[in-house]
Amino acid sequence: MTSDEVLRARSATRRFGDFTAVDAVSMAVRPGEVVGLLGANGAGKTTLIRLLLGLLAPTDGAVELLGGPPDRSHRARMGYVPQNLGLYRDLTLAENLAFSAGAYNCAVPDLPAALRDVRDTLVGDLALGAQRQAAFVVALAHRPEALVLDEPTSGVDALARAELWDTIRAQADRGVGVLVTTHYMEEAQHCDRLLLMAGGALVASGSEHDIIGDTRAVAVHTADWARTFAVLNDADIPVILDGTAIRVPDTDPAMIASALSEAGVDAEIKPVPATIEERMLVLARSR
Ligand SMILES: Nc1ncnc2c1ncn2[C@@H]1O[C@H](COP(=O)(O)OP(=O)(O)OP(=O)(O)O)[C@@H](O)[C@H]1O
After folding, report:
1. Helices marked H in 72-157 — which ranges?
2. Which of 126, 159, 172, 204 is the most exposed place for a label (fewest CB within 10 A)?
3. Is 262 exposed, middle or buried (0-12, 13-18, 19+ CB in 10 A)?
4. pLDDT per residue over 127-171, tens digit each?
């Protein structure tokens, strides 16, 4: 551990019985950077976060938070927005803020304009976007040195998502080290660096460009997309259907052409660079 790391895992492993949820993961987050933790459902992201925060003990390996053990005193210097937001739903927004400020021994923070009118509303009655914004206000009130955000933009509209990413970037700009999970792959662009998990392991890291590398995909253009999907699916070829657009990551275009021509499907087949999501699928399959 060097003092310029706010979060650090060294071969951190967590097993539940025979099942390995986090498998020898080593990673770090430094002050001022936004690190995106990506992975499919069940990849182990939340379990890794819980290890880093000391909410779960590693079965093997070690974690450090702000240069020390992830205990209460180190946790007090960081902000955490869990998937379920960690707010008291049967208290008003103002009561949540007062409670949290009391617990962290800091001033009650000002509310952004959008939340001022709902300060006396029970948190459970607020729209999800407002709840997420409120969870940020609570998590930032004590000026944390590290920020861990588990799916912070899940279920909120595009404008609110953009605002939350602005807030995240502003925190990094003031030196906070941020670890953020998301399942919106297009949000990878907001991160300085990415970590990709699959099956509990860290399978790739670096920029989006580094991670995609020279992985290619095949784009299949056809009016008969439903039949094309069925033919490729039946041939056990991993197809991605995005609306009516069909893509197949990491596959020989000739193989797709031959499978479709045998089935009598008329399609235009074009090799294209893979997306981060497609690269992730390839990495997850190889686990
Ligand atoms: N307490 C537990 N006991 C047993 N298995 C667990 C426990 N916590 C997590 N798991 C399992 O570990 C795996 C990883 O779960 P985890 O919640 O870390 O994934 P995730 O990447 O955060 O997924 P999601 O995006 O759905 O939250 C899952 O298969 C999950 O069922």
Report:
1. 72-75, 93-104, 113-116, 128-140
2. 159
3. exposed
4. 998 999 999 999 999 999 999 999 988 888 888 888 889 999 999
Alpha-carbon dihedral sign for residues 111, 115, 120, 124: negative
Q: Could you give the angle at which helices 93-104 and 128-140 cross, rounded to 10 degrees?
A: 20
- The residue written with tokens 């997420």 in the block is 132
Does the ipTM surpass 0.90? yes
- Model pTM? 0.89
Which domains are delineated in the chain?
Answer: 7-211 (3.40.50.300), 213-285 (3.30.70.790)
* pLDDT tens-digit map of 185-206: 888 889 999 999 999 999 999 9
Would you state the pLDDT for residue 1? 42
The answer, yes or no, to whether any atom of ligand 1 lies below 6 A from the CB of 22, is no
- Ligand 1, residues 20, 45, 81: which to mutate, most atoms within 8 A of Cβ? 45
Return the residue whose CA atom lies nearest to atom 26 of ligand 1. Answer: 41
Asked whether 184 lines ligand 1 (CB < 6 A), one says: no
Ligand 1 within 6 A of CB of 44: yes
